[in-house]
Fold:
Amino acid sequence: MVDYKNPWIFQGNPFLSENIEDNFGFVYLITNTKNNRQYIGRKYFWSNRKPKGKSRRVKSESDWKKYYGSSDELNKDRKEIGNEYFKREILSLHKTKGQVNYEETKQLFINNVLIEALDDGGPLYYNSNILGRYMKKNYGNFGANS
Structure:
């Protein structure tokens, strides 16, 4: 049973905690269904936190169910029109942190997130950089403010 709003979809079905199994994280695609802009990112299923007053870190499930990415522009649009207009899809699951990070970077380059445009000429992807090294303002035709 789905226990969170606007669930992540993987292979046509809502993704649940019980589906995590031995995976470390996933690569995802979020689509704004009003303007078709997209965002590719990664999220880990687990976090290691140190509870207050404790000396050891504890592995616990991350906030992946309510996560929508780190793009300020995407999150601004979410606040303006509502989460229900954003489709969240898991593209792939991965067993290690390295595999998650590699696949995200691969997808960012394969999909040309810094230069692909919508029919109106605006940027297709909310992603503004790859690895903090390759910036949309240097590659895309969208200007420094995109």
